[in-house]
Amino acid sequence: MTNTSGYIVNPATVTNVQRFSLHDGGGIRTVVFLKGCPFRCPWCCNPENLSAEPEVSLKERLCMHCSPRPGGAPCATAPEDCPTGAKELLGRTRTVDDLVAEVARDGAFFEESGGGVTVSGGECLLCQDFLLAFLEACRAEGLSTAVETTLALPLEDPARLVAACDVLLVDFKIADRARSLEVTGIDPELRDANLRTVLGLGARVVARMPIIPGFTDDDACVAANVARIRELGLSRVDVLPFHQLGQGKYDATGRDYALRDVPQLSDADVAGVVARCEAAGLAAVVHGE
């Protein structure tokens, strides 16, 4: 399809349009999850968005075994025919036009709460043509826009991104570059170079620090991330305590989950991180807003 700016835009694969979110950019948000991610964070809470291709999930607790499964064979029932919703197709091809029409229906909630549309993933920068066209179309409808991203992929058109996005929510995970590349594949130096570019173009950026036991919670990592956030001139950081909300998704998609037995963190568990951020002059918000 061709959008109103004349750009040729391929459809994208979307797993979910999640309404009434409260921690993804301010106010009541509708979050669009684009499928596909080049990175592999062991703690990822959206494993259904790692592959860029549609896939089938199966929630065994809902399965009534309506089709034979000899020897543990996969369920033969098509997702659309599953009587209990145990089997579900994750990922549907969407165009910019039909997706904008869907999120625009929530405009009254956005206006009342100061919210808007947030694009997440996966890593939504994998399909930048679709992302940019979608953001521009949302803005044309008067909708506020936000993007959740590692910002660790080359930017095809930084000026266009900044013009179409009200706020970028950018991850600060493993601070040490060598370890980050080894564990997740994310290059913090590329992220920072992109940050300098978009900040120079006037972008509003909120840093996000997921606090993950054994990966990002040690003093050295927290201190390095806080120092880098300050160095880049950012003023706010969302502190995100580790949770286990994604565990069931690993089971449903047949993926191993390395952090299955790791206890989730409470707000009290990250109080020290918040204090360190505030001591550095940053406004720290637990869970984001």
Tell the overall outline. Answer: globular
Strand order of the main beta sheet, please? Answer: 5-1-2-6-7-8-9-10-11
What is the CATH topology? TIM Barrel
Total of DSSP H or I helical runs spanning 4+ residues: 9
Tally of separate domains:
1
Computed over alpha carbons, the radius of gyration is 20 Å
CATH architecture: Alpha-Beta Barrel
| Distance between the first and last residues' Cα | 34 Å
Quaternary structure: single chain
Helix content: 25-40%
CATH superfamily name?
Aldolase class I
Give the SSE order as H and E letters. EEEEEHHEHEHEHHEHEHHE
Helix/strand-derived category reads alpha/beta
What is the averaged pLDDT score? 93
How many extended strands?
11
| Residue runs with pLDDT of under 50 for 5 or more positions | 1-5
Describe the overall structure.
The protein has nine helices and eleven strands. Helix 1 packs across helix 3. The protein has a single domain, classed as TIM Barrel (Alpha-Beta Barrel). The radius of gyration is 20 Å and the shape is globular. Strand 6, helix 3 and strand 7 form a beta-alpha-beta unit. The N terminus is likely disordered. With 289 residues, the chain is an alpha/beta fold. Strands 5-1-2-6-7-8-9-10-11 form a nine-stranded mixed sheet.
Secondary-structure map with pairings?
Layout: E1 12-21, E2 29-34, E3 55-58, E4 87-90, E5 92-94, H1 96-104, H2 107-113, E6 116-120, H3 128-140, E7 145-149, H4 158-164, E8 167-171, H5 177-183, H6 188-200, E9 205-211, H7 219-231, E10 236-241, H8 247-253, H9 271-279, E11 283-286
Parallel strand pairs: 2-6, 6-7, 7-8, 8-9, 9-10, 10-11
Antiparallel strand pairs: 1-2, 1-5, 3-4
